[in-house]
Q: What sequence folds into this?
């Protein structure tokens, strides 16, 4: 694997690998705000997030997880990986 791929290329690769439909912006609550998944697979209604290397639990990542949980709980997505 080429570890020198920039983020845009990695997301393009992920979309190609999953046969995804690209980024998808999905509204959640006013408090949480919108969620942008890196790769959305319309056929299965799944979102895929990409992180390169180790991803620590930052406030940003924690908020993404809360948005993902809300989206699944409220039947906006069937799952997020």
A:
């Amino acid at each position: 694997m080429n570890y020198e791929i920039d983020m845009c290329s990695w997301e393009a690769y992920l979309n190609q690998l999953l046969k995804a439909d690209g980024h998808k912006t999905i509204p959640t609550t006013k408090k949480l705000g919108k969620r942008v998944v890196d790769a959305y697979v319309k056929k299965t209604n799944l979102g895929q997030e990409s992180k390169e290397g180790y991803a620590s639990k930052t406030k940003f990542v924690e908020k993404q997880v809360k948005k993902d949980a809300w989206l699944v709980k409220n039947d906006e997505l069937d799952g997020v990986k």
About this structure: Helices lie at 7-18, 59-73. The first strand starts at residue 24 and ends at 26.
